[in-house]
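During the no-cost extension, the postdoctoral fellow (Dr. R.K.) reprocessed legacy sequence entries with the updated structure-token encoder. One reprocessed record is reproduced below for audit purposes.
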Amino acid sequence: MDCFDLHQATSQNMRTLQVNYVGEALLGDVVGLLIGNGPVNACSVEGVNSTKGSKVIQAFIEGG
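Re-encoded structure tokens follow.
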């Protein structure tokens, strides 16, 4: 939820959250979050380990 501003996080209900952990992030690593467009009331989020340049999570969020 860190990738959403306060209005986005509080103005919609979350109906579905699917998170796939696809890589490793260790204490001290910096993980950047990228929001992608999806269908109406949905988006994808990708977490990239900026320290190593590798993907660590893929998520799909659907509002209700």
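The mean pLDDT is 85. The chain is about 10% helix and 50% strand. The remaining legacy entries will be reprocessed before the final report is submitted.
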